[in-house]
Design brief:
The complex is a heterodimer. By secondary structure, chain A is an alpha/beta fold. Chain A has ten helices and five strands; from the N terminus they run βααββαβααβααααα. Chain A has two domains: about 150 residues, Rossmann fold, CATH 3.40.50; about 100 residues, no CATH class. In chain A, strand 3, helix 3 and strand 4 form a beta-alpha-beta unit. Chain A is flat. Chain B is about 30% helix and about 25% strand. In chain B, strands 3-2-8-9-10-11-1-12 form an eight-stranded mixed beta sheet, with helices on both faces. Chain B has a four-stranded antiparallel beta sheet with strand order 7-6-14-13, with no helix packed on it. The termini of chain B are far apart. Classes of the chains: A alpha/beta, B alpha+beta. The interface between A and B is large, with 49 and 50 residues.
C-alpha cells in the first residue's frame, strides 16, 4: 500500500435522474463519514453542502440515470472533469426503475400524465451513464450497499483494486448459512441471477430476492425462469419479476421480454 | 435408569436411554465444548449451537428431491429422524469467513497484529457417516499434505464427534454408491443409533475412542443386549436400502477424462445457473479466496479469507481475464474434479454421496444423472473442433 502524500483527493458526488437514495447511502455512513471527510476533500456534494470547489475531481460518484437531453451534456462534463468515475446504484448502472418507460411509448405517457406535455423535454429512454460516457466502476443496487461504497473509496484512496464481487447472491447466502428460500420455501427468488452486494438482505428475512442489484456476471435467466414456471409462477408474474429496478439491464430486459411474449401468446391462445 | 457408570471399551455397544443424550450434552458443555448440531430454523434443519436436546428438531423429518426440501412432521418423537440439510460441518472446521491477520502501518513498513487463534472446541453432535467421510477428505486437503492449514488444524484437533447412524435416507442420498454410509465406521468418538421400537426410545451407542469412552462414563448406560444391537443394525440396513439415488463409480475418473467434448456438457450448461450453490453446500469443497481490506486511513489492513466457488469468473481470473468463460467449462471442471481427478489428486473421490448438491441446486441439476448421461453415451462428441472456454 503506498504511503499517501500531498493534497487530499477531491471527491465529487453528482445526481442525475434518481431519488437521492444513493447519496443518502453516503451520508448514512455516519461513523465513517468523518473519516472520509478526513481523507478526501469533499469538493462537490450538494446534498451535503452548498460549498462548491471547482474541478477537476479525483473521484466522482454519480447517482441517477440519463433521462433528458440536458443530462447527456451534463454527464459528459462530469466525465471530462473526473479522473475516476463511479456509477452508483441501479439507475446509474442500469437505467433504474424509470427505465420501465423504455418499454412503452413515452409520448403517449406524456399525453396521459401532463396537461401541457410540450413543456417536457425528455429522452425516449432512461439509460445508464455507460450508454454515454466511459465508466470506471459500477456499483449496483437500489439502494447500493454502504459497505461496498466504503470499500470503493477505501480502495481508491489506497491505490488498490476494490473487492466488488460480481457473482450471485447465493454465494453470500450460503456463506451466511441461510437456507435457500427457493429450495426450502418454494419462493421465486432471483438470487441465483442477481449480483451480490446487498448483504443478502431479503433472503435473510425469508423473502425472495427481487434483483435490485441487477444481473450477476453470467446470469442464466432462462433456466431459472423455466424452473419457476415448473413451480407454477405464471409468465406475467415472471415478466414483472424481471422488470423492476434493473428492468433495462440487458439480461433482465431480455428475460422480461421473453415472458412478456410468452404471456402474449398465452393470452392469445386463451382468447 | 439402568446401569452404573462404567467405562465402556472402544468398539463396544451400550444402550443409553433418550434422557442419556441430555446428560451427554451437559457433560460436553461442562467440559468446555461448544455443542453444535442439527436444529430447526428458517424452514430447514441447520447446524447451529445446541444447549439441550430440546433444540434438536424433535419429531421432524424432511422430504428431499432435486431443488426441493420440505420439512414434515413425523408420527414419532425421533431426535434424528431426518437427512442432512444445507449446512455441513465445514462451517465450523473451515469457517466461511475468517480473518487471517491484520497489520498496522509503522513508518514505511508495517507490524503484524496476530489473530487470537483460540476458536471454540466444538462437539459435533449428529454427524452422519457421509459427513465423517467428508471431514476425512478435508483432513487430507488441509492437514495431510506438506502445507498444513493452521486454522483448520486447530479446529479439527479440538473437535469431538458424536455421530448418528442414519435411519432415514433422503431422497437425494447415495452414500451406498460412494461407499460412505449410512453406517458410521470411523472418525467418531461416539456413534449413536436411535431406536424407536415397541414403545421404547433409546440409543445404541458405539464407543469409537478412549476420549469417547471417558466422556460416556458419566452417562447412565448399560451393555446392549443382542436384540438391541440387532435393532440398531436393522435400522441402518433399512436406510441403506432406501437410497434416493445411485451413482455408478466404475472407472469414473477415466470416464470423465475421455469425455471432455461430450454433448451432455452443453446440455447441463443450458440449465446451470453458475450460482455456486452446489459447491457451497458440498461438505468437501474447500476452495477459498483471500482478500486484503484496508481502512479509509490506510493505517490498518486485514487479510480475510472466504469460501470461494469455481463457478465464478473471478475464480480463474488470470493474466487479465477468466480462463473458464462458459458455464459448460465450469460445470465440467467442477464435476470432473469432484468425482474424477480428485481421486488422482487425493486418493479418494471428492463426493460422499450426501446429495446436498442435488437438493440445493435451485434448478435440480443432479450429479448422479449427469454422470449417468455421460456413461450411457460414453465417447459421444460435439463437432470435431476444440471450442474455446
Amino acid at each position: 500500500m503506498p504511503v499517501r502524500t500531498g493534497r487530499k483527493p477531491k471527491l465529487a458526488v453528482w445526481k442525475f435522474a434518481s431519488c437521492d437514495g444513493c447519496q443518502l447511502t453516503l451520508l448514512d455512513c455516519e461513523d465513517e463519514l468523518l473519516a472520509i471527510a478526513g481523507e478526501v476533500e469533499i469538493a462537490y456534494f450538494l446534498e451535503a453542502s452548498r460549498a462548491i470547489v471547482k474541478g477537476p475531481y479525483d473521484l466522482s460518484v454519480v447517482e441517477g440515470s440519463i433521462s433528458s437531453p440536458e443530462q447527456v451534456e451534463a454527464i459528459r462534463k462530469v466525465r471530462q472533469q473526473s479522473k475516476f468515475l463511479v456509477a452508483m446504484g441501479a439507475c446509474a448502472s442500469g437505467g433504474g426503475i424509470q427505465s420501465l418507460r423504455n418499454f412503452a411509448d413515452v409520448k403517449e405517457y406524456m399525453q396521459a400524465v401532463y396537461p401541457t406535455p410540450e413543456y417536457v423535454r425528455t429522452l425516449d429512454k432512461s439509460l445508464p451513464m455507460s450508454a454515454y460516457v466511459p465508466v470506471d466502476l459500477e456499483l449496483k443496487g437500489c439502494s447500493p450497499s454502504k459497505a461496498q461504497l466504503l470499500e470503493v473509496i477505501s480502495a481508491f484512496l489506497n491505490g488498490r483494486r476494490p473487492n466488488v464481487p460480481t457473482h450471485s447472491v447465493c454465494v453470500d447466502c450460503k456463506r451466511q448459512g441461510i437456507a435457500c428460500v427457493i429450495v426450502a420455501l418454494g419462493l421465486p427468488c432471483l438470487g441465483p441471477v442477481t449480483q451480490t452486494g446487498c448483504g443478502v438482505l431479503c433472503p435473510s428475512h425469508r423473502r425472495a430476492c427481487y434483483g435490485c442489484f441487477g444481473p450477476m456476471e453470467t446470469p442464466n435467466t432462462e433456466s431459472l425462469g423455466a424452473w419457476f414456471t415448473l413451480m407454477g409462477v405464471p409468465s406475467d408474474s415472471l415478466m414483472r419479476l424481471f422488470r423492476t429496478f434493473n428492468a433495462y439491464a440487458p439480461a433482465f430486459k431480455e428475460a422480461s421480454e421473453r415472458y412478456a411474449s410468452a404471456e402474449a401468446t398465452h393470452s392469445h391462445d386463451q382468447g | 435408569m439402568a446401569g452404573l457408570p462404567v467405562a465402556q471399551p472402544v468398539g463396544d455397544r451400550a444402550v443409553m436411554e433418550r434422557e442419556g443424550l441430555q446428560r451427554l450434552l451437559e457433560i460436553l458443555g461442562a467440559r468446555g465444548y461448544q455443542i453444535v448440531g442439527p436444529t430447526f430454523r428458517d424452514g430447514a434443519i441447520l447446524y447451529d449451537e445446541l444447549t439441550s436436546i430440546d433444540d434438536l428438531p424433535v419429531g421432524w423429518t424432511d422430504d428431499q428431491e432435486g431443488g426441493t426440501y420440505r420439512l414434515r412432521r413425523r408420527t414419532d418423537q425421533a431426535l434424528f429422524g431426518y437427512g442432512v440439510g444445507p449446512h455441513s460441518w465445514k462451517k465450523f472446521l473451515h469457517p466461511a469467513v475468517l480473518r487471517l491477520w491484520r497489520a498496522r502501518r509503522d513508518g514505511l513498513g508495517f507490524q503484524f497484529i496476530p489473530e487470537d487463534e483460540s476458536p471454540p472446541r466444538y462437539a459435533l453432535v449428529g454427524a452422519r457417516s457421509c459427513d465423517l467421510h467428508a471431514i476425512a477428505i478435508q483432513d487430507r486437503v488441509f492437514v495431510a499434505g506438506p502445507y498444513v492449514d493452521p486454522a483448520y488444524k486447530v479446529r479439527r484437533e479440538n473437535a469431538l464427534v458424536v455421530a448418528v447412524n442414519c435411519e432415514h435416507a433422503g431422497g437425494t442420498c447415495f452414500c451406498v454408491s460412494m461407499g460412505t454410509g449410512p453406517k458410521a465406521t470411523f472418525g467418531f468418538d461416539l456413534a449413536l443409533t436411535e431406536v424407536l421400537e415397541a414403545g421404547r426410545h433409546y440409543f445404541v451407542v458405539e464407543v469409537g475412542t478412549e476420549r469417547g469412552a471417558e466422556i460416556f462414563r458419566g452417562v447412565p448406560h448399560r451393555e446392549a443386549r443382542a436384540e438391541e444391537r440387532d435393532a440398531a443394525e436393522r435400522i441402518v440396513a433399512r436406510a441403506a436400502e432406501r437410497m434416493g439415488r445411485v451413482m455408478d463409480t466404475t472407472d469414473i475418473n477415466h470416464l470423465l477424462y475421455r469425455n471432455p467434448e461430450h454433448p451432455r456438457w452443453d446440455n447441463v450448461a443450458g440449465r446451470c445457473l453458475t450460482c455456486g450453490n452446489c459447491t457451497m453446500v458440498c461438505p468437501t469443497c474447500f476452495c477459498f479466496i483471500v482478500e486484503d481490506v484496508n481502512d479509509l486511513t490506510g493505517e490498518v489492513t486485514e487479510r480475510v479469507r472466504r469460501w470461494d466457488v469455481c463457478f465464478t469468473t473471478q475464480f480463474t481470473y488470470t493474466a487479465g481475464k477468466p480462463l473458464r468463460l462458459s458455464a459448460r467449462s465450469r460445470y465440467r471442471q467442477w464435476l470432473t474434479h469432484k468425482v474424477g481427478s480428485w481421486i488422482d489428486q487425493f486418493g479418494t473421490s471428492g463426493c460422499v454421496g450426501c446429495g446436498r448438491c442435488i437438493t440445493w441446486c435451485p434448478v435440480a441439476i443432479d450429479i448422479t444423472e449427469e454422470v449417468r448421461a455421460i456413461r450411457e453415451t460414453d465417447g459421444a462428441r460435439v463437432g470435431a473442433v476444440e471450442r474455446p472456454g
